[in-house]
Structures are given as C-alpha cells and as structure tokens.
Amino acid sequence: MKLSALKTDPRVDLGAWVRDIPGLPGLALKVRPIDCIDAQRVMRRELQAIPRAKRLTGIDPADERAATNLVLRKVVLLDWSGLEDDDGAPIPYSPGMAERLIHEPEFAVLRDAVVYAAGIVRDEGKIALEEASGN
What we know:
Elements: E1 16-18, E2 28-31, H1 37-48, H2 52-56, H3 61-76, E3 77-81, H4 95-103, H5 108-124, H6 128-132
Antiparallel strand pairs: 1-2, 2-3
C-alpha cells in the first residue's frame, strides 16, 4: 500500500457534501466528520456535565444520545439539500429546523442519515467527496 493512500486532507473538517444516502434518494447532507476535534470537544463537555455519580455507575444511553444529538446539530450537520415538505416545497436548512429534526424521535431516519454521512466523510477523509458531488 502506498503511503499517499493513507493521507487525509485536513480541509475535510470544514465539511463535505454526501449524496446517495441509502434509502433517501435526492437528499444530500453537508457534514463534518463524526470525530472531528470540535465534535470531540462538545461531546466531552456534554458528558462531563453529567453528574459524577451517574458517570461512575455508567452513563445512561439516553444521556449519551442527547449529547450525540447536540454534537450532530451544533457541529456535524452544516447544510442539506433535497429535503422537502409534504407538498414538495424545499425545506431550507436552519439551525432551528436541524435541532427539531435531529431531536424528534419521529425523524430518527434523518438523524441516522447524518451519522452515516459524517462517518463517510470521516472514512473517506478527502475533500474530493465534495468535488465528486459537484459542489
């Protein structure tokens, strides 16, 4: 294996578009890697805010999910395209709408898509993802 194949472009932490998300035709998400340094900082801060006694006995999955949701909406998800309301009108990205869709259990498919896309960006680690999607 060539060493150059292991290189990642640090600009990917600025975000890249991911298209062709399984089961969600037409949806594209601009995301940062799921484990970018800013995401790690926010996650650490949120988990440390959980009372020590609770952390010692094991972090409740609900607390962990709440922290992950915060990371997804504040750090990871930057934009979307191809999301429409039931009448076919585009739903523009906004932090408020992102918060609603990531936190509401009814929209778990979208939350999971953000996690998937952020994993793709992390795994690919190349800004070419954005170039390949035409953005």
